[in-house]
Amino acid sequence: MKEDNNDKLDLRIKKIRKISGILGGIGLLLMALVLIFDLRYPNILFSIILTPAIALVFISAGMYIASWIMDMHLAYKRKQYISLALLILSGIV
Predict the structure, then answer these.
(1) Cβ(20)–Cβ(67) under 8 Å?
(2) At what angle do helices 44-77 and 81-92 cross, to 10 degrees?
């Protein structure tokens, strides 16, 4: 029973990381479009494109942090203390 819950949590962590990567990539792509087309502030496209791009990047970062915390919790539940220590160390760095 516990193993089944841990596997479900592991799949949920992978799904969150995948969605986080996609959202972050879309946000960075939108930011790159602003740079490529040399859009500056008075242009309305600057605001229209850059506002969701920044939001997507911040949402992606929050989702990645949430998956990192969930990964630490899972390592603690599985009593993988070396893995937990490495996760904490990577968070500090």
Answers:
(1) yes
(2) 150
